[in-house]
Structures are given as structure tokens and as C-alpha cells.
Amino acid sequence: MKTILLVKVIYLETFKNIQNYVVRHYLKAFTWFTLAMFAMVLYVFLYRLFTDFQFSNL
Q: Which of 8, 20, 27, 37 is most buried (most C-beta within 10 Å)?
């Protein structure tokens, strides 16, 4: 739980000092897009791992 709170504080502090409206919202959107893509990759990897997907042809 402490790690999640630290990530939240870092996220809020990062965007607090950015003054340009367009840059601030672009970076926030890019952050959420990156997080969503990472979550999707993690989900697919774990799904393949638990459904006995063969990762190599050996």
C-alpha cells in the first residue's frame, strides 16, 4: 500500500509544476496510454502462462 501511495505522490508532483496546458494533458494522456498497454501485455503474458502456451518449439 505504501508503494501505491508513493507512486501517487510522484505522479502528482510530476505534473504540478508543468505550466503549459497542452503539454500537461498530452503527458497525462501518454502516461495513461502507457500504463494501459503495460497492463495489456502483462495480462496476455499471464494468460498464456496459465493456459500452458508453449513459448518455444524445442
A: 27
